[in-house]
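Let's sit down with a protein and look at its sequence and fold side by side. Which protein we use is up to you, so please pick one and set it down. Label the sequence line and the structure token line clearly, so we can match residues to local backbone shapes. Go ahead whenever you are ready, and we will take it from there:

***
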Amino acid sequence: MKSLDSRARWMAALLCAGLLMVAGTGVAEASPHSGTESVTRLPSSQYAIAPLVNADSTKAYVASIDDVGTSLDVVNTRTGKTTAHVATSGGRWAGPLLFGPGGKQIYLLTEGTLNVFDTKTNTLRSSFPVPDQPRPTGSNPGSLSRMAISPDGASVYLSQTGPDNGAQSTGPSRLLVFSTVRQAFTTTVPLPGESPRAVVVRPNGKDLYVSGDVGLIHLDASTGVPTLLRTLSDTGFVDELALTPDGSRLYALSKPDGHAVLVDLDSDRVLTTIDFQSNYQPVLSPAVSPDGSRFYVLEDDHRSVPKVLSYKTATNTRVARETVTGFAMERGTGLTLGSDGDTMYVTGVNYADDPGAFLQIVEL
């Protein structure tokens, strides 16, 4: 939970916001948390990524880096207590998480490995090293980036950068397919570019998209081996992706450029560009509300306090009064929306006061 100093900082932020509102200025930059919240310190963790929240929002699963490697924390969202702290690898990289069919398993990435976590027993059930890729002698395997699961839960798709020699890429990137039934990697597909990032699958299970340095890559996943259909280069460099609930549109976020493009997936056409006007402050963790009415991004860097920006999807314009600030962390590292659309789960870190990684739950 919050330290006294953290609570004081949070209350001071809200007080300042209130004074600005009374004065008639700064309304766009502050939104007091209207409901209850909790802040949970993640045991021994130094950095945490965006959490995975179960269907009834009673548990949050947070992958993080700690003193000895990576771990997965299970947090009871009702009490704010950590109920399990499970070591997942000895490496120094914790990747994204996704649920398997029925929420019985969680798939998580660590360095060079796809892991399977049992949500009933809170144990790491199995680990599958990624098969090596063709690479020149002396070069290193590419890094895993993101993953997605097919709507039927049968396939997990992972993106991996090309091999490198420590200074530059020495080969093509690729997409790997893991069969959840066979519990094995079944195929790999070369991808354009060197640095693929996020992966999403439309609800139809056929259309698969990968972001990266070449733009947005569209593949046909209707057969066992995904095939390249086209590359949308007019999106520019793309990092993270967020599908609308009906799967008809896609927000493609570029962190360093501080903008996102909205893509119509029926035509693979860029509809508009949203400029976050972040002044080169990183934006991350794009999320669309369950009812499709709002698009959120977490804005943060080392120079300012984190905030969540809200956009109306009907017009793709910012809703200034819905900006959320006052987080009890110096830096935000990830954002996840709850299934109710009224709860945000934000991970972050403190460096100076009360150092460590935290999960904060905010009721809007």
Observations:
- Residues 1-36 have pLDDT under 50 and may be disordered.
- The radius of gyration is 20 Å.
- The first helix runs from residue 4 to 23.
